[in-house]
Amino acid sequence: MTHDFYSDTKTKPSAAMREVVLTCTVGDEQKDEDPTTRELCARVAELLGKDEAVFLPSGTMCNEIAISVHSNPGDEVICSSTSHIVNFETGGPAALSSVMIRTLSGDLGIFDEQQVAQAIRPPSRYAPRSTLLSVEQTSNMGGGAVWPVARLAAVAQVAKDANLRTHMDGARLMNAVVATGVDAAAHAAQYDSVWVDFTKGLGAPVGAVLAGSADFIHEAWRVKQRLGGAMRQSGIVASMCLYALDHNVERLVQDHELAADLGARIGALPGVHTVLPVETNIILFDLVDGAPSAASVVESLARDDVLIGAFGERRIRVVTHLDVNPVSGDLLIDRLTHHLSA
Ligand SMILES: *Cc1c(COP(=O)(O)O)cnc(C)c1O
Prior knowledge:
This protein is an alpha/beta fold. It folds into two domains: about 15-245, Aspartate Aminotransferase, domain 2 (3-Layer(aba) Sandwich), CATH 3.40.640; about 250-340, Alpha-Beta Complex (Aspartate Aminotransferase, domain 1). It is built from 14 helices and 13 strands.
């Protein structure tokens, strides 16, 4: 058996989740005639406190569509240097929307109002136009760090005061909701667009839902059609997303507890330099100089059927989710101890 801590995307739909597919009602999603997809969008719009929502194949498409709708060619998007749109979308903002990106540094992917204020360009004949601020809740490359809700509101306010739009990459927003006890709509209140991923900790096989005003969603649909993201009987997968909403949100607390426990134990291992604060389900840690490289540790553990990720020369990522448990956690610590002491 494989113990896969590489990512929360590795979850496989449970038997109960697969069951709901058999009885869901379906129609042509591209014509907005799929009742199950419509129900999912209505529920997510309500959850996120927005007028409307649209079902998409992936979170990446949510980000790219939002950037496209909110900006014009030559505009500038402000976001963290660690963000998914900068590092993992194959240059999508440049390729699909012809925008520039202004990256901000900041502790664990979280920046502040002053940084945003300084990054916004005054109107000028020469400069690109700053049009969009994007934040990631939680911050993936920040080790699952959670933006405090007040900070989310403060950076958005600075952006709005300068006429920028605001976008939230909420791939793991529900982890932040469970970790803080603050509902999703409050996190997203100051954001013009926001989405949640169903294929991370929520455990569904396909799908993400992007929400915003009716006007925003109207435009988002046009880009979805352009990119080939419009579907047919998508209730087949949307039904599993609905199942995830009903069954897999509150339990995220178990993933956070396991991650906190593993983070503390990893911090005590020989060869481990630092563990980033563990706030949700992601553990990022750095090995000391002279320790085996992250890649070689990852390779050694893989031979023992324990999968983790190398995210830098000496940086390793471990992610907890539905398909791992404290027993696999014990095995992970055992194998890490073995390979780091070797
Ligand atoms: C996974 C992820 C995405 C992209 O979502 P996909 O569904 O994999 O396309 C975007 N942003 C963050 C922070 C992510 O972790």
